[in-house]
Amino acid sequence: MDSWARFRTHKPAMLGAAILVLYTLLAIFAPWVTPHDPVQQQLVQSLQTPSAEFWLGTDHLGRDVLTRILYGTRISLFIGIAAVVVGMGIGIPLGVVSGFYGRATDMVIQRIADIMFSFPSILLALALVAVLGVGLNNVIIAVGVAIIPIFIRLVRGQVLAVREEAYVDAARAIGASDLRILVRHVLANSWAPIIVQATISIGITILVAAGLGFLGLGVPSPTPEWGAMLGEGRNYIYSHPHMSTFPGLAIFLAVIAFNLMGDGLRDALDPRLRALEA
Amino acid sequence: MLTYIARRLAVSVVTLLGVTIIAFGLVQMLPGDPARTIAGLMASEDEVERVRTRMGLDEPLGTQYVQFLGNIVKGDLGQSARTRRPVTQEIGARLPKTIELAAVGTIVGAVLGIIGGVIAARFRNRPADHAISIGSLIGISMPVYWLGLLLIMVFAVNLGWLPAAGAGRRTSIILPGITIGLFTIALVARMTRASMLEVLEQDYVRTAFAKGVANRNVVYRHALRNAFIPVLTVIGIQFGSLLGGAVLTEFVFAWPGIGRLMVDSIFARDFPVVQGIILVFALMFIVVNLIVDILYSYVNPKIQY
Amino acid sequence: MSATEPLLEVDGLSVEFDTPEGVVKAVRDVSWNLMPGETLGIVGESGSGKSVSVMSLMKLIPTPPGRIVAGEVRFRDRDLLKLSRFQLRKLRGKDLAMVFQDPMSSLNPVQTVGRQIAEAMTVHDSKLSDNEARRRSIELLEVVGVPQADVRFKQYPHQFSGGMRQRAMIAMAIANRPPILIADEPTTALDVTIQAQVMEVLKDAQKKAGAAMVLITHDLGLIAEMADRVIVMYGGRVVEVGDVRTVFHNPQHPYTFGLMASLPRLDTQTETLPTIPGQPPSLITPPTGCAFHPRCRLKRDRLDCEQDVPPLREVTTEHFSACHHTDEMDQLIEEVSAEVGTDLTRGES
Ligand SMILES: Nc1ncnc2c1ncn2[C@@H]1O[C@H](COP(=O)(O)OP(=O)(O)O)[C@@H](O)[C@H]1O
Ligand SMILES: [Mg+2]
């Protein structure tokens, strides 16, 4: 059975994929799905409980919660994915260099990874936002930087394993350059665990980014972002719990979907890999 | 053994030095005048100047860093821009609460997580395993801040059984403890299950069966200890992370720990405190890891020094 | 030998594994007897079902994915495959004990070697005191030739060399003086230089315990030296059974002959050893008829090989072969001898 067949028959992974497809469609077609505006304040209709017109109620500024969640899909998924791209973009080259060249370079990069690992992701992201300030780009950078060490470690381990393989020696023997060996052989043989880790990491970055938003240190209002919505809803938790219940559910489902996909990809791409890392 | 600890210690010191560079650099990276940043938004010009000379902010960066390091060694983390009290005092007053919460979360998580993971592995692919797997997936995917809010809605607002915020009462720890513990339970259960399944496939487990050892004893006497070795590391790292990663939980429940202090300080742009907290978190994490590594070498006879 | 009753009778054993690629028919309709005190060798190339067939005797195969789909294993008037988990446990290590292939991984890394040997006794004798178990374990370590047994008793497996570990495994296996000892490639994972020593220890231990032994190996030389009778397995089936000398001097199955012909010989210098052409059979979609037919020189386009599973037939006394054309074996041996320019017939030498 090939990977794709294994993935297709992996029921949890298919559930995750289905949730993500649904999210993507809703994000793209949000303007056609809902008649309301995600940003425009309508104070006369503020803090309404769920009804036929406002399925999930309205917030303190009279905006439809469902509409904001739908538009928020664009923001929150984008931040999550973009942050992983940032983390991979920096972490993979560092991991490759660290594993391939070894010695002093490796030592330095490993100490850097150690240092970054001494902070939980949320703390690192928080410290960076404290310095950089809030805003979409800064949140992406802060969260992305926080997951760099995960990719350094992963890729370094892969490189160390692949480096010993005979075909790398063979490539070197026929005069291939380091870069060529790295790209053609080392990375080409490491993509499976990288994809698995990337998928799971999107779950992490969504959680961390929404956490920043929840604290009021994410994307500033009135941008509809799930974490920020949850943070605003927190102030109305006694009287209007719908304001925080549904954005939280949106985050939760997205994270579950990426985790399900990650598990499925792991089983499909490399059955030997196990859910050992967190 | 001693050389192992010494080597491990040396690495920790290097890491810690790196952390001081980050903490130092963080404030340097701030836009604007560092003296103004450190003195605080409300400080007068005089105060800003005093901060500048006291901290040597007019000196070259290298000198400043050496001085910064010297102060840390002396236990001086500077002064809070908000309260004017020493940062060490601010942090010291709240640290016990953070440790309390992290300890509760870790202990609950480790105990229930290991039990859950062992049950899941023993009854692999049976209903109990499926239930535990789904539960763990929920646990690791649940935003703690949302879980916290849900718990407050149910147990504080609707039922009125438990306090919603603060640390004033004996029962105050229950909701934040559950919030922080759930993720740990899920994490440890997943890890334990995977580790147990791997161990149960090992040849020495087959040897035990071939000797006529009962199923239950194979699981507890032969498999569990081997499976526990990697789990111990996860638990240790998790405790270290909870010390710093409880920021969101502390915020939701207005729990008076340093996570909450950190968020408040960021809003107040009280950077000496932020800087101090980062250093303290990193120090605690590194120390916890060091202890875990040393424990690890006791649990695993294969490690040679 | 024929006068006595068999100690263990395996009858029609079939074992399958469910894998993502399909159902692996690892063991198909395997039958054999083990006589008291004898050593029965099992040979066959890797994957032919040797380990699975003996592991199934004590239900030691992992289920799932494994399944014992048919067969009986009679021992002392009981069918071992029908025993309850509890009854089976009483039997494991006490009546049937195993020495596994890889001593590096077969010992628990976090328990001392001594404790693991002692456990083999204490699980079957709850009244045995710790001190007594300890004394006997040290004694056992001495029996299998582990020097400084009292020190070694307290050490962990990683402090033992491969050979020493296998000695410890042997000590564990003979701890309860089992009537049946099963050794699955006991020296394959070891350094060549110590293989002979460990084999010697095993033989000695067998003698002391008065046990019958099933010895799995792909080393035909070892079989010749150690075993009384030999079973040849191919593609999950038994293809030839008989007295070791008889089988080696007068193989009655083309596969057995191929195995022996591909061995380097001391008595003659040959440049080329005849090897068996082709690949081991798929166990998911095994060849129809005789599993060996795609690689067999005797087939000569005959349909019976392709269509009918050859039953084990007694060719000479107590010598069985599962080949439709045993009458052509002599011819085959001559043919191959001529091709490689060496006389491959092994006379009574
Ligand atoms: N746990 C298992 N899962 C799937 N297939 C197995 C398992 N154990 C053995 N097999 C299959 O059974 C066949 C026979 O294996 P085995 O008895 O170990 O061969 P050998 O003769 O080398 O000892 C092999 O094809 C192997 O792939
Ligand atoms: Mg085998």
Short summary:
Chain B has 305 residues and is mainly alpha-helical. Helix content of chain B is 77%, strand content 0%.
Please give a structural write-up.
The complex is a heterotrimer of chains A (278), B (305) and C (349). Chain A has helices at residues 3-8, 11-33, 65-101, 103-117, 121-132, 136-146, 148-163, 166-173, 178-187, 191-215, 226-234, 242-269. Chain A has 278 residues and is mainly α. Chain A has one domain: MetI-like (MetI-like fold). In chain A, helix 2 packs across helix 3 (65-101) and helix 6 (136-146) packs across helix 10. Chain A starts with a helix and ends in a 9-residue tail after the last helix. Chain B is mostly helical and 305 residues long. Chain B folds into 2 domains: 2-73, no CATH class; 94-299, MetI-like (MetI-like fold), CATH 1.10.3720. In chain B, 77% of the residues lie in helices and 0% in strands. Chain B contains 13 helices and no strands. Chain B is flat and about 80 Å long. The mean pLDDT of chain B is 87. Chain C has helices spanning 50-57, 85-91, 113-122, 130-143, 149-152, 162-174, 192-209, 220-226, 244-249, 254-261, 303-307, 329-340; strands at residues 8-19, 22-34, 39-43, 66-75, 78-79, 96-99, 180-184, 212-216, 229-234, 237-243, 313-316, 319-321. In chain C, the strands form 2 sheets. An 8-stranded mixed sheet of chain C has the order 6-7-8-3-9-10-12-11, sandwiched between helices. Chain C is globular and about 70 Å long. Helix content of chain C is 32%, strand content 22%. Chain B binds chain C through residues 125, 201-204, 206-215, 217, 222, 225-226, 229, 299-302, 304, and chain C through 58, 60, 62, 64, 85, 89-94, 97-98, 100, 102, 105-111, 116, 119-120, 123-124, 156, 158, 169, 172. Bound molecules: adenosine-5'-diphosphate and magnesium ion. Magnesium ion binds at residues 50-51, 184-185 of chain C.
Provide key terms for this protein.
heterotrimer; A: 278 residues; MetI-like fold; C: 349 residues; alpha/beta; four-stranded antiparallel beta sheet; binds adenosine-5'-diphosphate; binds magnesium ion
